[in-house]
Amino acid sequence: MRGRAPCRLLLLGLLAVQPLLPVAGAAEPDSEPAPALDALDSYRLALLRIKGHVAVARTLLQLHADGADYHLGQPLRSIFETIQPELARRGAPLTADTLEQLERATAAGPDAALATLDLAAAAIDGSFAQTGAPDTRSALALAEALLREAVALYADAVEDHEVVDVRRYRAGRGYALQAEALVRHASGLRGHPEQARLVEAVVLVRQAWPGVDPPPIVFDPAGVAGRLEEVLAAMERLR
Q1: Considering only CA atoms, which of 119, 110, 3, 126 is closest in space to residue 60?
Q2: Burial (0-12, 13-18, 19+ Cβ within 10 Å), 37
Q3: What is the CB-side half-sphere exposure of residue 163 using CA atoms within 13 A?
Q4: Of 9, 17, 25, 140, which residue is 20 to 30 A from 36 by alpha carbon distance?
Q5: Over 80: is that where the pLDDT of 210 sits?
Q6: Would you say 148 and 175 are in contact if contact means Cβ atoms under 8 Å apart?
């Protein structure tokens, strides 16, 4: 056991030179309030949050790892309930039955669960597609909201360079992945001369989650929040 302390100190020293530390002169995290979302984007955001949890569960099932049942249970139900009336009004393919199937899926084994996840993912994507393609304003607002929540979850999950709440860590990863997909593929951003810089900035934030299982030593939340400020600056150039 004594040999682990020098190894830990070495790893912490290596982290000090990684690019996820706050950059000089960066503003404090959350120095500006997040823009308020309109009703349509709030609905879209809920769908993307659900998709983030489903993505985490998929990876865990593929790895035959524990924890998928949590991400297919209470978090999804809580988010779903906030938009259930709107889903029904729109006749969206994501329904309460979909969630019930997901909640039962893990008991049937990984292969059966993954097949259920495929159907659920199609229902989520179909529900999102009904809203039309987000324009630049909406795509940026959605990505910002997802990243702010991801970074907040990361801060809650990490203490002294260790993950102490793996559920929050994984949820943050799911949201960060959805934000990255948005800035890469949203039609409102595609082809914009500043898009590449934004993607690079988002990828730097997403590096805080190298996998669904955290490494023994992780980045300090202040460094991750510092990189979020770079993302917000890149977004301002696109607005």
Answers
A1: 110
A2: middle
A3: 22
A4: 25
A5: yes
A6: no
